Amino acid sequence: MTYPRVEINLSLIKKNAMNIVELCYKYGIEVMGITKGVCALEPVVQTMIEGGVKKLGDSRIKNIVKLKSFGVNLPVYLIRIPMPSEINDVVNFADGSFNSEFEVIKLISQKAVENGKVHKIILMVDVGDLREGVMPEDVKDLVGKILELPGIEFEGIGTNVGCYGGVLPSIENTSILVEIAEELEKFYGIRVKTISGGNTATLKMVEEGVLPRRINQLRIGEAILLGTDSTNFRKIPNTYQNTVILKAQVIEVKTKPSKPIGEIGRDAFGNIPVFEDKGPMKRAIVALGKQDCRIEGLIPDEDHINILGASSDHLILDVTNSLKEIRVGSIIDFKMNYGTMLGLITSPYVEKIVV
């Protein structure tokens, strides 16, 4: 076998998808399955679909091209604001996209007309997280301009919280979307078909029954893939968390001091490390490093193993109290958070296995 490797449990991911789709369906909410966390890996995408997901979204146009290449016939959306340089692929491969800049939407309109297509637009509204989106007071005028463009279908509005500013979804900030949608409908005499109210972090409001009634779409990746909600630091009820497991191989085991010897400068990443002197400890190194993922998001499967730190290629562990015999060649399992999974799946040095 090849290491390091990520093993992805399709049956558990399917159960997660089914439970989340069922929860949202009770409240009239459509689940857009977000595939970027696994780089649109075909078996995982097909598992999401089998779990009941009716739309797909990804932040990378290359992943969307991949989705189309293996015959996905569900609507697929680009969820990151399109770059002007990728408009041709956006129009040709994505059924719709999330946008905030009129100049970009005009480019999409022009390319859609050239190619005889109609491209769906969801306009992002910034309700406080300060990532992408139009400020609420500017939405009405911008929608008026969008409605005049050929080759464009104004599908609705959306928002994002939690990913940049850490702002939690609330009744107040999600209600802003509903109020804007109703204002648009009254002013322009249109129907706002989609109100995309957030991501995995917003599921907590669904569970509590407090999400404003007209929010009818959530973009869900983490909850399906890992059964977790990083923003609210919790496990999603009725989901599994042992869906994606990292297996890394030990390449050195030695008893060494716990504090480096000599004058301390900066490490390879420009940081000044701080160490506590705990006396001699049994240390193991596994072949994995910061080049592969965010080490901070790794969780050893055994409670008695602790992560001491990492360089670009080496992950250093304290295995002094491990209940297992750790030796060169041993395999150590890790769970992970969403950010770490992104790195591992993206790394060309980590094998991906579906089970």
From TrEMBL:
Return one GO MF term.
Answer: pyridoxal phosphate binding
Start and end residues of each Alanine racemase N-terminal domain: 8-225
The record, for SUPFAM superfamilies, names: PLP-binding barrel
Q: Which domain of life is it from?
A: Bacteria
InterPro entries from the entry? Ala_racemase, Ala_racemase_N, PLP-binding_barrel
State the needed cofactors, names only. pyridoxal 5'-phosphate
| Protein keywords | Isomerase, Pyridoxal phosphate
- Does this entry carry the keyword Transferase? no
Q: Which GO terms describe its cellular component?
A: cytosol
* Keyword Isomerase attached: yes
**What Pfam families has UniProt attached to this entry?**
Ala_racemase_N (PF01168)
User: What transmembrane ranges does the database entry give?
Assistant: none
* Name the record gives this protein: Alanine racemase N-terminal domain-containing protein
